[in-house]
Design goal:
Strand 10 and strand 11 form a beta hairpin. This protein folds into three domains: 69 residues, Orthogonal Bundle (Helix Hairpins), CATH 1.10.287; 84 residues, Efflux pump adaptor protein, beta barrel domain (Elongation Factor Tu (Ef-tu), domain 3, Beta Barrel), CATH 2.40.30.170; 59 residues, conserved putative lor/sdh protein from methanococcus maripaludis s2 fold. The strands form four sheets. Strands 8, 9, 10, 11, 12 and 13 form a six-stranded antiparallel β-sheet that branches. The protein starts with a helix and ends in a 30-residue tail after the last strand. It has three helices and 13 strands. With 280 residues, the protein is α+β, with helices and mostly antiparallel strands.
Length: 280
């Protein structure tokens, strides 16, 4: 028999004895008023009822203590979420002084995504008045896009001096707990719109001492190495603000062989699939 069952049995016994004593006292008092019983009988009945009432209260307290003690054997997570693998098994002794946690519980709906944002991106976002209000997309490790949009939830208090980035937390709805902690993903936000800007393959842009160049093919199929000003990357393409016009041809492969003014044989460039590694 468990301690709680023992306490419940003791409480039932104490209540029964008290109820009998109270019934006896209620029966004796009217008889005492009629002088049918002695004063001593009334005093004994009153004393017995009071003692048994005290025992009843003690039995109630014992039952409450047994319930509290039993509650300590059931561990409930203070947050909603999913639990990891148990680190202890049935029969292990655990308590407040245990060095190892029983398990780890994570709240994953919504799931938090930590994003290191560059200082330039942070300043641009704040100056544009967005203040972290941009709608976010989550690109998963396999290239698919999470069907639910996210939002910025928290910005760290300082910029990391070593990386020049500031940590930002974004929240994404995660019904069904599809996304799990530790996964890799990329966060994409539309902070501005570039119109009529040519996009060239990233491989066509050469970086030379902090500046960028593109080998443009002229109308007579000769190379013109032109300095360009790049804006941002869109997947594996680069937006060019200055230096290349829409419709111009650029060299993507064999850049190490091209020279200013050298003739070239133009061939169409085939964009490799995302799961295919570029050659050369």
């Amino acid at each position: 028999m468990t301690a709680l069952e023992q306490a419940e049995a003791g409480l039932a016994e104490a209540r029964s004895r008290w109820e009998n004593a109270k019934t006896h006292l209620d029966r004796v008092r009217p008889l005492a008023e009629q002088h049918a019983v002695s004063t001593r009988d009334v005093d004994e009945a009153t004393s017995s009822e009071g003692a048994l009432r005290a025992l009843l209260e003690g039995a109630k307290a014992a039952k409450r203590k047994a319930e509290i003690d039993l509650g300590f054997t059931r561990i409930v997570s203070p947050i909603n979420g999913i639990a990891g693998m148990a680190k202890v098994q049935v029969g292990n002794l655990v308590g407040p002084g245990s060095a190892e946690a029983l398990t780890t519980v994570s709240t994953v709906d919504p799931i938090k995504v930590n994003v290191p944002m560059s200082e330039q991106e942070y300043l641009r976002d704040m100056r544009n008045g967005k203040n972290g209000k941009a709608v976010l997309e989550l690109i998963l490790a396999d290239g698919s896009i999470h069907p639910h949009k996210g939002r910025f939830a928290f910005v760290d208090r300082q910029v990391e001096a070593g990386t020049g980035t500031i940590n930002v937390a974004a929240l994404f709805p995660n019904p069904g707990n599809f996304l799990r902690p530790g996964q890799f993903a990329r966060v994409r936000a539309r902070t501005s719109v570039l119109r009529n800007v040519p996009l060239v393959p990233q491989r066509a842009v050469m970086e030379v001492q902090g500046s960028y160049e593109v080998a443009v093919v002229t109308a007579d199929n000769k190379i013109d190495v032109a300095p360009v000003k790049v804006d941002r990357r869109v997947d594996d393409l680069w937006a060019i603000r200055e230096g290349v016009k829409a419709g111009q041809k650029v060299v993507v492969e064999g850049l190490q062989k091209v020279r200013q003014g050298s003739p070239v044989a133009v061939r169409p460039y085939r964009q490799p699939p995302r799961d295919e590694k570029p050659q050369g």
